[in-house]
Fold this protein.
Amino acid sequence: MEKKITDIGGTWPLANGVQIPYLGLGVWQADEGAEVVQAVKWALEAGYRHIDTAAVYKNEAGVGQAIRESGVPREEVFVTSKVWNTEQGYDSTLRAFDESMRLLELDVLDLYLIHWPVPGKFRDTWRALEKLYADGRVRAIGVSNFLQHHLEELLPVAKVKPMVNQLEFHPWLVQPELQAYCRQHDIQYQAWSPLMQGKVFEQDVVNELAAKYGKSPAQVLVRWDLQRGVVTIPKSVKQNHIISNADVFDFELSADELAYIDSLDRHQRLGPDPDVFPK
Ligand code: NAD
């Protein structure tokens, strides 16, 4: 089913009906304090309604502060955080969630993710997320960096299915089979490092399309994400980039152009391999 793309405030429904804004601001490597507070305020001012943080980014307090000070009503902003690898397990995840909420100073979180599939632990971690969900402390729960075999291990034992899988996604790592598997299980695919951590500017095809539409390469990739039905969270702490990365609602890539970007796939990661990293 085609997902509707309207404007910066647009949303898509998750499996439980909760609406997720399909464009958000990522804040990995945004420094706690003035830098992250300013970036989140600029984003909210520009119309973003979705902020992606994590315990391990160590900037949850700044994210919460920026939301409170922005003047945008809390319920209009979709906030994601994630439990880090060292905190995985049932009790430790519940404690980690409490600590994230203490820092964010929020009553309810919008989305809580298992950051990486730590072997031997992620099923207990998931039970903790199900408890938080059942208790109404989080509106949606999901995973990150789960490959198909991780989902195949989790889904049979899950009482609540993950609503989101947040993965590295850009023209060098398209993973169409994993996308299809997530679609089949009503798990929303979400892109991390959508701008290839800045390497987008080295892609000839993307540069050509950018020239054709009078847009930036970053805008072409954000648009590609959305037209592929992928929720995306480009990161910047610069106001001009925060604004321009979301200025993607005045052009449309053709089916051929989308396929052309897909064809740049090299199965190449910029970040860690989920089968190696989270030991
Ligand atoms: P990204 O692909 O969004 O690239 C961000 C970098 O691109 C910025 O640091 C900046 O240098 C550059 N940039 C951004 N906009 C630009 C513009 N308009 N012009 C020129 N340069 C520009 O990289 P990312 O931060 O790795 O990924 C986005 C978000 O995804 C993160 O902030 C984080 O929230 C999330 N993430 C999640 C995981 C995970 O394991 N779940 C891992 C990595 C990132």
Notes: Residues 26-28, 52, 115, 144-145, 166, 192-198, 216, 218, 233-236, 241, 244-245, 271 surround nicotinamide-adenine-dinucleotide (CB under 6 Å). The mean pLDDT is 97. The first helix runs from residue 34 to 46.
